[in-house]
């Protein structure tokens, strides 16, 4: 099933309690694509960057096997999306220090004609209008899943609610699910979001794992257990989880409940590599064999009798 993603390709500045990384390669689309490419190739990217996009960021993305960058627009007169965030002591919570929308304030990127047969669409974090514009280009899609973020819930709620009526699934953080619904229980919040349109919702709970609420049932997955020194930078972990999840669905060619449950486990293991370094480095430096080996270890760790 051809897989396509749209979202941000960003320049990130990240502060953690012990370190700071400036202008590293990030963005929701970049993390998703790098993660999904472990599971399914090619991953088609639709996005835009400005003339200030660093050449080493371009080289990093180009080095990832399985990414199709035909839909990545380079706009020399524009500014690349940039984001800065700071993590609190427990590394579970963060605050956004700045968001510079840049290309996101301009016309949405053009979808190449060679992408027309895409069937699995992931709308990584971006302005809901950009997400909707892309979605409308794929009337024959099989599955459309989206992510969103506090900023869009705050400034584009109406557009987001309109998007919910068109998508099949939503992958969202527990705090964002609460922000959307005013309900802190993730199961009840997911059901309230299902009432807004999607037929399934995955609520991510950081180090406490994730839960899938679906019309065919509920599934949970724990987080991969990492020591404190294994968590260097959580940025992009959510996008990487989504990449592993959707990549698995594309690989098995099925989006039934069991495939989604397995996809959550692959998403968890894929995201665990993102946590180990700043930017895309954790994913880029991981081999397929390392991913598979951690997955077999996770199967043992998470087994229930
Ligand atoms: P995550 O940690 O999974 O929520 O993803 C963080 C990534 O999303 C960073 O690489 C940012 O560049 C990007 N990002 C941050 N804020 C936004 C936003 N409002 N819309 C789209 N992407 C964003």
What does this structure look like?
There is one protein chain. The chain has 305 residues and is an alpha/beta fold. It is built from 11 helices and 13 strands. The protein has a 9-stranded mixed β-sheet, with helices on both faces. The radius of gyration is 18 Å and the shape is globular. The model has no long low-confidence stretch (mean pLDDT 97). Residues 8, 10, 12, 26-28, 83, 99, 125-126, 149, 151, 235-239 line the site of adenosine monophosphate.
Give a summary of the structure in a few sentences.
The protein is α/β, with parallel strands linked by helices.
Counting DSSP E segments of at least 2 residues, the number of strands comes to 13
Ligands present: adenosine monophosphate
Distance between the termini: 34 Å
Task: Count helical runs.
Answer: 11
Radius of gyration: 18 Å
H and E order = EEEHEHEEEEHEHHEHHEEEHHHH
Name the average pLDDT.
Answer: 97
Shape: globular
Give the percentage of residues in beta strands: 25-35%
Structural class: alpha/beta
Helix amount, in percent? 25-40%
């Amino acid at each position: 099933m051809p897989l396509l993603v749209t979202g941000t390709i960003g320049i990130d500045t990240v502060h953690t309690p012990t370190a700071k990384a400036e202008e590293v390669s990030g963005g929701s689309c970049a993390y998703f694509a790098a993660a999904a490419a472990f599971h399914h190739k090619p991953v088609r990217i639709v996005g835009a960057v400005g003339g200030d996009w660093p050449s080493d960021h371009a080289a990093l993305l180009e080095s990832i096997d399985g990414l199709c960058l035909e839909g990545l627009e380079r706009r020399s007169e524009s500014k690349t999306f940039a984001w800065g965030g700071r993590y609190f002591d427990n590394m579970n919570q963060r605050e956004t220090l700045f968001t510079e929308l840049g290309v996101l304030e301009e016309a949405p990127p053009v979808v190449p004609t060679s992408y027309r047969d895409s069937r699995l669409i992931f709308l990584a974090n971006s302005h809901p209008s950009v997400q909707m514009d892309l979605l409308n280009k794929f009337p024959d899609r099989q599955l459309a899943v989206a992510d969103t973020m506090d900023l869009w819930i705050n400034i584009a709620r109406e557009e987001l609610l309109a998007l919910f009526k068109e998508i099949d699934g939503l992958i969202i953080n527990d705090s964002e699910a609460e922000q959307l619904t005013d309900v802190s229980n993730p199961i009840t919040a997911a059901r309230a979001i299902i009432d807004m349109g999607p037929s399934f919702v995955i609520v991510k709970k950081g180090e406490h794992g994730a839960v899938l609420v679906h019309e065919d049932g509920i599934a949970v997955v724990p987080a991969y257990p990492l020591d404190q020194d294994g968590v260097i930078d959580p940025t992009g972990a959510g996008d990487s989880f989504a990449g592993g999840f959707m990549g698995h669905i594309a690989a098995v060619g099925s989006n039934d409940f069991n495939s989604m449950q397995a996809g959550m486990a692959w998403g968890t293991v894929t995201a665990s590599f993102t946590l180990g370094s700043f930017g895309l480095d954790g994913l880029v430096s991981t081999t397929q064999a390392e991913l598979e080996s951690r997955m077999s270890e996770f199967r043992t760790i998470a087994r229930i009798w």
